[in-house]
Amino acid sequence: MAQPDLRRLVPDASEDLRDILNPERGPVEHPVRSEIFGPERFAQHGRSLGETHRAQISASASGAFFPRLQDNIRVLREAHRYIASQATTGYDVSPAAEWLLDNFHLIEGQLKEIHDGLPRRYFSNLPVLIDEPLAGLPRVYGVAWAFVAHTDGAFDETLLMQFLSAYQQTRELTLGELWALPTTLRVVLVENLRRLAERVATNKAARQVANLCCDRIETISIPTLDELLALLHRRGVGRMFLAQMAQRLLDERAPGLVPYHEWLARALPDLAAVQTQQPADQAADNLSVSNAIGSLRLIGNADWPEIVAHTSATMQALLTSAAFAAERDDTRDQTLHAVEALARRSGRSEHAVADTLLALMHGKAASAAVDVAGDQADEANVAAGVTAKRDAKRPANAEARVASYWLFGPGRPELLRVLGLDERLAL
C-alpha cells in the first residue's frame, strides 16, 4: 500500500505529510482556469456555449448537485492544517497560502451558505447537461464553470450579465437556473479553491520531502530515490521534488554526492525551464486564490434581483406590462413561480408561457399576436401551442390586465385551455 511505502522511504515524514502525498489519491487537479476573456470574446463564447449545451430534465428526483462539496471542504481543511503547521515552524509561506490561512473562516462558511442558499431538492427541477465533461450536472453549473474559468475566478457583475445575455441568444435559461447561479458560482469557486489549496499543500510537501532527503542524502540509495520519485510522480509533484533537491544540492560538490548530481541530471534534464516556470505558476496561483476569495464576498453583495431582471428573457417580456412592473416584490414572485410551474406542466418554455399570458392580459386572443409581429411572433405562437380563436372575447375590465386574474383568478381556465392543460391537473 502507498502509505507504508512512503513511511518506509521517508521514515521521518509526519503523518500529515504522508497523507497529503499519498499517491493513491492521484495527481492534483489543475485549477479551474483558462484563457481570460474580455467582453467581446466572452459574448462570442457565451453564444457558442449555448449552442453546444444540450440539456434535459433529470430523471432522478434526488437533485444530485453540490458535486463533492463535502469532500472539497475536507481537503481544504487538510491543506489548511498542513500549511498552518508549516507556517509555525518557520517555513516560507506563499501569498496563496497566506490568503488561505487568513480567510479560511470565509471558505468554511460556504458550506452553510450553499446549503442555506438553495435546498438540494431545488436542483431536481433544473435541466442537466447531457454531454461530458459535466454530464448529469445542472446546465447552470456549466455556465458558472465557464464564467469562473475565463475570469480566473474574479467576479464582475457587468461582465456576468453580458455573458448571460449572450448565452441566451442561442439557449434560454430558466428563471430557476438564473436564481440558482449565485449558489452555483459559490460551488465552483469552492471547487477551485480546493484544487488550489491542494496544489499549494502538495507542492510544499514535495519540497519538504526533498529537504528531508537532502538532510541525510548520503544514507539514501539511488534505487530508493527512484522508488520515491515514482510515488511522487503519481501524485503529480515529482518535478517539484526534483527541483527542490537540485536547489539544495547545487552548491554541494563533495565527491560522495556525484552520483546524486548525475541522478538529478537524468531525472530532470530541463531544470532551468522548471526553475523559470515555478515562479510564474506560483504567481498565477496567488492571483487565482485571491480572486476566488474576493469573489465569495462579492457574490453575497451583488444585486441578484437586478441581474435576473436584466438577463431573463421571461422577466424582460413580463416587464413590458406596466401592471407587472408595478407589482410588489412578493406579488411578482408569485407571478413568476406560477409561470415556471405552467411551463413545466405544459412542456413549453417560460418565455412562451409569459407571451401567452401577456397576450391575454392585453385583451387579445393569443393567436392575434401574429398580426402584430409577423413571422417572429408566429414562431413564438406555434411554440406556445396557442389554441384560442382570433375572435375570442376578452374581459374589458382593468382586473383582466393583471397577471393574477389569469394565473389565479377567473381567467385561469381560459389560460389553461390556451396552454393545452387540463385545469384539474394544473392546480
Note down, in words, how this protein is organized.
- This protein has helices at residues 2-9, 15-20, 39-52, 69-88, 95-102, 104-117, 139-151, 157-167, 175-215, 222-235, 238-249, 258-267, 271-301, 304-311, 313-318, 322-325, 329-346, 350-361, 369-384, 403-407, 412-418; strands at 55-57, 127-129.
- With 427 residues, the chain is mainly alpha-helical.
Q: List the strand order in the largest sheet.
A: 1-2
**Count of β-strands:** 2
| Mean model confidence by pLDDT | 87
Identify the overall geometry: elongated
Cα separation of the termini: 59 Å
Q: State the secondary-structure class.
A: mainly alpha
Radius of gyration computed on alpha carbons: 29 Å
Specify the helix fraction band.
55-70%
> Quick one: biggest sheet?
2 strands, antiparallel
Uncertain regions: pLDDT < 50 for 5+ in a row? 366-393
- The helix-strand sequence is HHHEHHHEHHHHHHHHHHHHHHH
Number of discrete helical segments: 21
Strand % is under 5%
Keywords:
427 residues; mainly alpha; two-stranded antiparallel ribbon; 21 helices; 1% strand
Question: What's the structural blueprint in terms of helices and strands?
Answer:
Layout lengths: L1 H8 L5 H6 L18 H14 L2 E3 L11 H20 L6 H8 L1 H14 L9 E3 L9 H13 L5 H11 L7 H41 L6 H14 L2 H12 L8 H10 L3 H31 L2 H8 L1 H6 L3 H4 L3 H18 L3 H12 L7 H16 L18 H5 L4 H7 L9
Antiparallel strand pairs: 1-2
